[in-house]
Amino acid sequence: MQVTTSTISLTVDDVAASTRFFTTHLGYAQRVAADGFASLGRDDAAVDVVLLQRGIEVLPEGFRDRHADGLILAFTVDDLAAQEARIKSEGVEITMALREEPWGEKLFQVTDPNGIVVQFVEWADQDAPEDAEALA
Predict the structure, then answer these.
(1) What separation in angstroms does the CA of 117 have from each of 17, 86, 88, 108?
(2) Is residue 1 situated within a structural domain?
(3) Residue 96 domain-assigned?
């Protein structure tokens, strides 16, 4: 099997609001749209995003009333601090401030108008010594 594209499909209440958020702040372009549906993509390695209106019949019957919840859409980026500054300058609220986890992940999060959590990640240098003072 060869995977040519990866896509995540998210069920939301307001397709237009998420489309605006993703195209304005996350660098996505709308590829296809119809009533209750939008397909978004980028020209880099980011996952494509399909937005489906909650209740749309293309969803399995048991899933039609659900919406994107309990997931984090994460993007590994270069220069995390610059991305944070950019997103703040665009008026987007940072919903989790820039932080570094003990395992070397630096991150911050924003949330789109439909509650989709988007996390920006940069990994610390894995080759750096854990305790620089021990080497001095």
Answers:
(1) 14, 17, 16, 10
(2) no
(3) yes
Owning domain of residue 65: 7-135
Q: How many domains is the chain built from?
A: 1
Q: Compute the distance between CA of residue 9 and CA of residue 38 in angstroms, rounded to an integer.
A: 10
- Whether residue 2 is contained in a domain is answered as no
State pTM to two decimals. 0.83
Give the DSSP letter of residue 133.
H
Calpha distance 102→62 (Å, rounded): 39
> 60 lies in a domain?
yes
Residue ranges in the chain assigned as alpha helix (H):
15-25, 80-89, 132-135
* pLDDT tens column, 51-106: 999 878 887 787 777 776 778 999 999 899 999 999 999 999 999 999 999 999 99
Helix then strand then coil, % of the chain, to nearest 5: 20, 35, 45
> Quick one: which of 123, 122, 85, 112 has its CA closest to 28?
112
